[in-house]
Write a structure and sequence with these properties.
This protein has 441 residues and is α+β, with helices and mostly antiparallel strands. It has 3 domains: 9-123, Methyltransferase, Cobalt-precorrin-4 Transmethylase, Domain 2 (2-Layer Sandwich); 125-366, Heat Shock Protein 90, CATH 3.30.565.60; 370-438, Winged helix-like DNA-binding domain superfamily/Winged helix DNA-binding domain (Arc Repressor Mutant, subunit A). It contains 14 helices and 19 strands. α7 (222-237) runs antiparallel to α8.
Length: 441
Amino acid sequence: MTNQESQTVEYKQNWHNEYLKVVSAFANSRGGVLYIGLDDHGKSSGLKNVKKLLEDIPNTIRNKLGIIPSVELNRKSSQDIIKITVVPSSVPISCNGKYYLRSGSTVQELQGKELADFLIRKTGIAWDDAFEDRGNWDFLEESTIEDFKRFAVDRIPSIVREKDFVTILKKLNLIENQHLKRAAIMLFGKEVERFYSHACVKIGRFLSDTDIQITDIVKGNLFQQLETTLEILRSKYLQSKIKFEGIHRRDVLEYPYEALREAIINALIHRDYRSFSQIQIRVYPDKLIIMNAGSLPPEVPVESLKTEHLSRPRNKLLAETFYYAGFIEAWGRGTLKIVEKCVEQGLPEPDFKEENGVMTVVFYKNIFNEAYLSKKGLNERQMKAVLYVKEKGKITNTEYQILCKLKKRQTTDDLKDLENKNIFMRIGSTGKGTHYILKGR
């Protein structure tokens, strides 16, 4: 027996019904053992009325919590103690209408979003799988269902012959006993904002974190949001370069179109729709950020997104329908595809971040961003020189001396180091015309 309280061990000198919270917390967490007759340091304190307690405790726990833990008599230092062993419960266990979890050696009451997340995990009912009582067939967009039939023909060949929309939704598990699920509204609804005002995408062009030039808000069902968001980004927010492959002309977006599409799909189908924040796409001069509410599941750490990892969709019905439409793969390769497409286009790998329940993907316009330069070991002077060349196109030794207030020998060493690190390329060998440009730009 351990002499310290922990995540799975608690000591109490005597039994009081308020300790039902401890039993509830153990059942809702990883289980645990509650010892009655020990002080906070695990020393026996002398327990009275042991026989009565052995009868009352299991009856009270069963009547109040609906579970039957193991309650047995033990001895320590020649004194009686009671050991209550609680196993983890597959269903949520409440105590007087409230829910508790074990955190370290403390009992914490769950409230708000934490409570909602806990109940969903325990009951297995996801947000998109719940019924939408306000919805009916009049709120479905038939044109979107027809589009889906075309998209899904490769993975559901028989769908082409299906004329009855109700049958299609039943096969997709979006309807049960004539009741529409939230996923049906999100995927095929019209005027979705009447049901979920926060279910939209907000796009903005930022010169800095506080200087916003323009903003667009994209509404509609998820298929419409995907199509419209990509079109607005392509036509209004991002630039394209013209490339020729033989006689064929290609317009290449400054960020890979397929990577952006994959990241937006991920935000749409994996976001936490119980949060009232919108999906945000922030377009900066040197980067693009996509943000959505929703933490990754514990078994999928953010570091794993650039390697092979499990696919654990938050909204299973949304993800399955997008899969049948051919928009996503089933094996969690979406983030790998995002990385691959960026590297193929000569861009740095995007960053995946998770902070305060928000998932973020950061695309960089070129490798000459602060994070990349810092990884390459550039000092502040060299970073300043790179930013200067990004703006002016080139820099000379003399300009570097003036910019950083250095002597010629120092600038020569700095510039040579930038060459060795494949950041700068020298144009010219000696003389006034010698200058430096960004390599590969």
